[in-house]
Amino acid sequence: MSDSPRLQRIRTIDPSVPSNNYANITDDLPRRHCSLLFQLRSGHAPLNKFLHRIAKSPTAQCQQCNEREESTHHFIMSCHKYARQRAALRAAAGSQATNLQYLLSNVHGIKELLKYIARTRRLEPIFGDVTPPDPKEG
């Protein structure tokens, strides 16, 4: 299991894997949020780089900017199409907004990342509105 490329990919995001850390930080989130986060962490999110690899997209290219492959890193950290949404993420998460590991494995980072994803509406057709639930409503 330790030789798995998926495990190695996830360890770049969360070095504590395997552990209960992911379960603990996602315990209060709806299932679709947990599914999305796991897919982003493992590199299996429905973005063109992965979809092209499984023959579900004709290209790995980002359809928003046509400059790079649409990977998790590109979608969250660098696609200029989402500069406005990323600015809001940076305003909320501060300097940690440039740390993908933080955004995918810290409770506050995940909350702000989900808001970013909801604002982009990029994954809405698959996951619906992924705005994190307000803890006061729970």
Which helices and strands appear, and what pairs or packs with what?
Elements: H1 5-13, H2 21-26, H3 31-42, H4 48-53, H5 72-78, H6 83-93, H7 100-105, H8 107-120, H9 124-127
Helix pairs in contact: 6-8
Q: What is the gist of this entry?
A:
With 138 residues, this protein is mainly alpha-helical. It contains nine helices and no strands. Helix 6 (83-93) packs antiparallel against helix 8.
Structural commentary:
The protein has helices spanning 5-13, 21-26, 31-42, 48-53, 72-78, 83-93, 100-105, 107-120, 124-127. The protein is an all-alpha fold and 138 residues long. The protein has one domain. Helix 6 (83-93) runs antiparallel to helix 8 (107-120). The longest helix is centred in the last third of the chain and has 14 residues, at 107-120. It starts with a helix and ends in an 11-residue tail after the last helix. The model has no long low-confidence stretch (mean pLDDT 89). This is Reverse transcriptase zinc-binding domain-containing protein.
The run of helices and strands is HHHHHHHHH
Query: What global shape is seen?
Result: globular
Largest sheet composition? none
Count of discrete structural domains: 1
Count the E strands. 0
For the CA atoms, what is the radius of gyration? 15 Å
Kindly state the percentage of residues in helix: 40-55%
Number of helices: 9
C-alpha end-to-end distance: 37 Å
SS content category: mainly alpha
Protein name: Reverse transcriptase zinc-binding domain-containing protein
Organism: Suillus luteus UH-Slu-Lm8-n1
